[in-house]
Amino acid sequence: VGFMPIVIFITNLAELLDLGPLQPLWASFAPTLGLTLFLALLSTVLVLIFQTFFCLKANAHAQHKLQWWYFTFQLIFVVLVTTIGRSLMNQFGAVLESPTSVFGILASSLPNATHFYMTYLILQWTKKAYEL
């Protein structure tokens, strides 16, 4: 429940701060870098939740749960929330009246989010290269 507002805030962070001549660089990398840093802690938090609140027979069960829930979080909060984050807040009433209108909102807002996803992929590749 608290994850969605944080993701929307991080992706909209670039518009809140004005860095003058560095604004184009800040606007392109700040949301992606913030989301990457925030998601780096997600697996640790999920494992702590599983070990605290679930009775698991082995570590393999925790890893399996982590794999499933990490994928689900990535799909929902990275792909869907960053794509429809701004437009969903503006059209919340229309979505409540007709839940199938989410697909139209996704179709209209996905081209605007393409730059975010390209930067996200580049930062993920860079992160993996540093790990090697």
Walkthrough of the structure:
There is one protein chain. The protein has 132 residues and is mainly alpha-helical. 81% of the residues lie in helices and 0% in strands. The chain has 8 helices and no strands. The chain has helices at residues 3-11, 13-16, 23-40, 42-53, 59-90, 92-97, 102-109, 114-131. α1 (3-11) crosses α5 (59-90) and α5 crosses α7 (102-109). It starts with a helix and ends with a helix.
Task: Draw up the topology in text.
Blueprint: H1 3-11, H2 13-16, H3 23-40, H4 42-53, H5 59-90, H6 92-97, H7 102-109, H8 114-131
* SSE sequence, one letter per element: HHHHHHHH
Distance between the termini: 34 Å
CA radius of gyration is 17 Å
In percent terms, what proportion of residues is strand?
Answer: under 5%
Low-confidence sequence ranges: none
**Average pLDDT metric:** 77
Please identify the structural class as seen in this structure. Answer: mainly alpha
Number of strands: 0
- Profile the largest sheet: none
Helix content: over 70%
